[in-house]
Amino acid sequence: MNSLLEPADLVEWIPVAIGQRAQCDHCGQTLRPNDRLEALVTATGSFDTELVVCRCGRCSKGSLRDGTERPCLLVRGRLAASVDAGGHSRVVLSGAEIVDRSE
């Protein structure tokens, strides 16, 4: 078994919001489980990641804004319903893939 983590493994199951809904950071549209999502993710430690920006399918840009200073990954996936260790409902990033920004 290969114990090395692939970059896509680091962005899978990142918490997006508490409860069963999230919002697009650009237009405010309500996002629910199974909705498509584009997100910017930063690494906060060796295996810790943090969701920075969440965009709905309509607001997806497929790129980073010029002048972005923090190193981050552009990720696409879907929202999935989940429960955290404390039994609280949340939505997470599922089926995540890192977008090649050089396209």
Number of domains: 1
Helix run count: 1
What letter string, H or E per element, gives the SSE order?
A: HEEEEEEE
**Uncertain spans:** 1-5
Q: Total strand count, please?
A: 7
Instruction: Please state the average pLDDT score.
Output: 80
Distance between the termini: 32 Å
For the biggest β-sheet, the strand order reads: 1-7-6-4-5
- Helix-strand category: mainly beta
Radius of gyration: 14 Å
**Shape, principal axes of CA atoms:** globular
Which percent band covers the strand fraction?
35-45%
Largest sheet: 5 strands, antiparallel
Helicity level, as a percent range?
under 10%
Give a short synopsis of this structure:
This protein is mainly beta and 103 residues long.
What this model shows, in words?
Keywords: Plasmid. The protein is mostly beta strands and 103 residues long. The protein has one domain (7-102). Helices cover 5% and strands 43% of the residues. The chain is built from one helix and seven strands. The protein has one helix spanning 7-11, and strands spanning 15-18, 22-23, 30-31, 36-43, 49-55, 73-83, 89-98. β2 and β3 form a beta hairpin. The chain is globular, with a radius of gyration of 14 Å. The relative contact order is 0.30.
